[in-house]
Write the structure tokens for this entry.
Amino acid sequence: MTLQLKPGTSWDDTYARCLAAAPEAFAPDRLLNLVRGGWHAVGTPGEHTTPLDGTPIPGPPRIDIAEAASAVDFAVDQHGAWSRTPLEQRKARVSAAVDALAEHRDLLAMLLVWEIGKPWRLACADVDRALDGVRWYLDNIDRQLAGRVPLPGPVSNIASWNYPMSVQVHAELVQLLAGNAVIAKTPSQGGFHCLTLAHALMLRAGLPVTLLSGMGSQIADALIRSPGLGALAFVGGRANGRRAATSLADLGRRHFLEQEGLNTWGVWDFSDWPTLAAHLRKGFEYAKQRCTAYPRYVVQRRLFPAFLETYLAVIGDLRFGHPLAVADPDAPLPELDFGPVIHAAKAAELARHFDDAVVSRAVPLHRGSLDDGGFLPGQDLGAYIAPAAVLSPPPNWALHHAEPFGPLDSVILVDTESELLAAMNAGNGSLVASIATDDQGFAARIAPDLMAFKVGVNAPRSRGDREEVFGGLGASWKGAFVGGDLLVQAVSHGPEGADEKLYGNFPDYSLYPSR
């Protein structure tokens, strides 16, 4: 069956809609930076291609350290006025921004499809999750801020590319509600068009926002160490997180650094395979390119035949391909589990990791083929990779202690509870973990020893929404925990003189809420 691009969804069509929706932020040939209270053609536009099919698109206009420092200084001044703005006025402006974002929901979602390869359903869910989450905070912020005051300076946000709306924009709007001006750096790998449109709408609502682009190695000092900043919010990998934490080490500034981790699913004395199959399939959404994906399964050896039968049935039935490819112009967009990974280099890296594991005597459980995907005739397939899995990778495998951030799973067989714990804790701390078991007593006994912030029993755990808290154990998190009331507490101060001890992982203590 020959597929075609859904009419009206091309990149040219999508970018034209951006020009019409926010001409102040999009030029015909480049994006602008939101600095010093307005949109400016500063920075050097870089080359970029969409992972969908290699189409060239405007890249983020990268500014230098001097421009970044100037933007931060302006945001510090903005913060002074915004922090004194009455809460009711802040709520009205944030609510107006949410309404504007909702009005452009489909365009924001289409940008996520093109920029970071999300299938349509998941792209819409990312936008909806952000807006619904902020609406919850609008309903609860009076209670959450009772007796609290804004931070002494703006919040600097350095976030990953995979959830521009439901993580980054959501967090910024809550920070604004709490009385803080915000600064955000666009991720270099994708999401900058979506963030540009979102911030154009936020600025129109009268919110003190700054959005800038640049190489992290060149402008990080301004975004992390500038003396007027009130907090650093970071979402990304451990290497960059360590560098950010090192820069903050002498400042004692409020911070929350989500550094991901190897999330694992243990299978022990278990029999409900149809339920697990449903969880396994959902786990492949967006090619496992999220901080709460489960790429490692630790399985009791005697259960391996049943697990393998269940797993192979799921992985062999996954739907992947070009998210905008249809057989008929009037057909709806395809219902896919995932599209491309973030770029061709990542797809090649995952393929190398699979080959390296097999060369090192891991058992190749499954290696899918791109022939099973749905693609346009002759399109660039560089950023696509079919799902794959290996059994018993060696301890020196590059991904034995790290997450792949792609559809490459590994399975470890164990015989004892101690082996199960050791294998599930191999990543030295994670955001989530789950146990599949018929024995609730076993689950209760082993869960406290898992180095995961959230532990699910016969169900996955996720970042969570609204009142649900979020954090990480071990090397997966530094600083204050977030989510629910904790997010507001992380970006505000309690009564003056109060000895406030936040939940989180700090150099001198760790304090955990009920998880």
Remarks:
- The chain is about 35% helix and 20% strand.
